[in-house]
Amino acid sequence: MIIDVHGHIISAEAAERAPMPRSLVDVEGMIEAKAAAGIELTIVGSPSGARTMAPADRFAGYRQPFGYQQPFDQLRALHDWLGETVQTWWRNLRAYVYCDVFGDERSVAAAAETLREPGFVGLIANFSADAEYLDSPRADDFFAMAEEAGVPILLHAGPMPASCRDIANYGLLEIFGRPCDATLGLAALVLSGRLERHPSLNFISANSGGAFSLFADRIDWAVRPRHWDDRTTQNRGEDDAAGAPVPELHRTASSLRPSELAGRLYVDTTFDHPSLHEANLRLLGARHIVFGTDAPPIPVKFEDKIQAVRDLPIGEAEAEDILAGNALRLFDLTDFLEARASAEERRVPAGG
Predict the structure, then answer these.
(1) C-beta of residue 231 within 8 angstroms of C-beta of residue 242
(2) Which of 20, 49, 59, 190 is deepest in the core (most CB within 10 A)?
(3) What residue spans define the domains of the chain?
(4) Residue 307 has what pLDDT?
């Protein structure tokens, strides 16, 4: 069994309204291609709600505001379509509810209501918007709602990450800017104190966490920066450190070490570089990595993606955890297992 926790689809109506890759509307084609490789279930959602991921002014004749607020009826229509599509493809699909992290009370309440509908098993939200990350107080309502809902949250870059507003080249933004947004977004989340205040929440990072795991040995510096110690000895102990006063800008809302909190995060397998996966293994362990392809819209050779997991320096049981076990544990997929077992029974003759 293989479960893909990171896929995207969109209705034909939404695709006509905004510039989007056409692969997003081919739901049946996606299911067939994945099934041929052994991927039985995909959890799908939109990281931009009913809007396109393309920034406001990158397509002639199309405009959308920088702010993440969007027409309420369009978002409701998207979730209605997602729910209906999951019901049609119950053996193959589950869905995320999109929620604007910095949205008003009405939008957060609407996301909570949609989560109670059949087929929705998690939230999809953005690392940042405009000039704000997840440490912003404006995200308080989102975190309270997510904790009450008790579902996993896929964190995904949005159309205009906070760190990318001045990037003019869309290829640079799309291919490099969004993974950088994941790196900064996870760091902001860890340093915000939210993981300590909401210990039951499970966050899955798209883009394999960006470069976050590569910075893991430095994240505690954000609280106690070594370069502000002006003593010359290189062998001092941490408790013996003394030097210039640490600027007030170096602060965290958590009483725990950021490096301790970082180990609670989850990442997907979007990226293909084995060195990044191995860095994630060292930081998080195999039980905190979930199989995700970002397909569609990303064109993927699914067999190669699966083999890349099996080629990691881990045992077979750990590989199976990444491919399916961790997702089964994180998401409430009892109904999927029941449907799968029922289908197996219909395929096996009585007494066979």
Answers:
(1) yes
(2) 190
(3) 2-231+238-347
(4) 96
Residue 243 above 80 pLDDT? no
pLDDT, tens digit (0-9, with 9 covering 90-100), for 155-186: 999 888 888 877 878 778 788 888 899 999 99
3-state class (DSSP) for residue 247 = coil
Closest Cα to residue 187, out of 216, 147, 228, 158?
A: 216
Which residue shows structure tokens 């029922």?
342
pTM of the model: 0.87
Look up the CATH architecture of domain 2-231+238-347.
Alpha-Beta Barrel (3.20)
Judged on CB neighbours under 10 Å (0-12, 13-18, 19+), 222 is middle
Q: In the structure encoding, which two tokens stand for residue 291, read together?
A: 């199989």
Cα–Cα distance measured from residue 189 to residue 42, given in angstroms and rounded to the nearest whole number: 26
Q: How far is it, in rounded angstroms, from Cα 175 to Cα 314? A: 29
Paired tokens of 129: 């918007």
